[in-house]
Amino acid sequence: MSIPVILDVDTGVDDALAILFAVRHPDIDVLGITCVAGNAPLAQVVDNTLRVLDAAEAPEIPVAAGAVRPLLEPPRSASHVHGADGLGGVALPPTTRRAEPVGAVELMRRLLLEHDEPVTLVALAPQTNLALLLRTYPEVGSRIERIVFMGGSASVGNATAVAEFNVWHDPEAAAIVLDAGVPCYMYGLDVFNHVAIERDVATILEHGDDRLGRVVGALLGHRIALSEDESAEYTGLIGDAGAICAIVDPGALRTQVRPVRVELAGYGRGQTLVDLRRFPGEDVVHGLADEWAEVEIALEVDAERMSRLFLTTLGLGAGADATADAAATAAADLEVER
Questions:
Q1: Span 3-337: which CATH code?
Q2: Which of 178-182, 263-267, 288-292, 320-324 has the weakest average pLDDT?
Q3: Which of helix, strand or coil describes residue 144?
Q4: How far apart are CA 323 and CA 261, in angstroms?
Q5: Are 118 and 145 in contact (CB under 8 A)?
């Protein structure tokens, strides 16, 4: 039986990969997609999303525009990461699809109330739309199975030394979502940074005969701009797509349910504080601890297993075989070194 989901996106490179995966996987039923400013300005995010649905040969899926900025902060796009168009310069043809006349919050509410069973919200972006939904219509919380979000970290950050971009972009929104009483699953940088496609595989896909494979290869091959003249090394990360892989193959990850809160002040603003202690600390013993949300956190991942799932779901089996061969070769080389 397929899992009904609503995707909330700020469609940049890895959101595009996630949409392609979600639409193509037989166990995922994408009821709708809502858009928020983040990786790119809102209008660009909406246009990118509609074009990616074309690339996926998706059926008609309602898409709605949401928040143009965070709850408190000014808008700040990640154009140095995803390029000026949000898709790393990967040119997708114009689309005849159109966004819904209603906004993101109204679309989410409608879809949640219309569906016969609780729906999983998948947040692959700053959580502004979700916070607005839960504050405007708190009664829909009972219609949400859980919120799976790409964001946060139990270790290092990327937007700052301690904060991950999606949470850092709108920390108040993330705090509202965590405190709403809806079960949450955090797919953060602890696993995000490990699931990648080999460079040779991406190159083969980008220059192959399969139309979707060319799009996927080009997206994987996009490199973060460090300056006008310099780009980062190839990473091949599937990024946000990993959060949806985790829904269909939860056994590929090791998770723990731990207390989490979002820091809202100082340099740590936007950091997800994760309490990994085995025993109560002095704050608990002396009654100084606040109540934190209990969140299921992905801490380790079988990266090769998820990479293979990603490629096979998109019908790029040869790439999946190459990834498996590369992983086996790397393991053999490591054994020789030992």
A1: 3.90.245.10
A2: 320-324
A3: strand
A4: 37
A5: yes
Rg (CA), the chain: 19
pLDDT of 304 higher than 50: yes
Alpha helices in the chain (DSSP H): 13-24, 42-55, 79-82, 104-114, 128-136, 165-169, 171-178, 189-192, 199-206, 211-221, 241-248, 282-285, 303-313, 317-337
**Under a CB-based contact definition with an 8 Å cutoff, are residues 129 and 37 in contact?**
no
How many residues does the structure list for the chain?
338
pTM: 0.91
Residue 301's alpha-carbon distances to 139, 177, 209, 254, 310, in angstroms, are: 34, 25, 31, 6, 14
On whether the CB atoms of residues 106 and 40 are closer than 8 A, the answer is no
Q: Model confidence at 280, in pLDDT bands (50, 70, 90)?
A: confident
User: How many angstroms separate the CA atoms of 235 and 214, rounded?
Assistant: 17
Q: Which residue has the tokens 């953060």?
A: 188
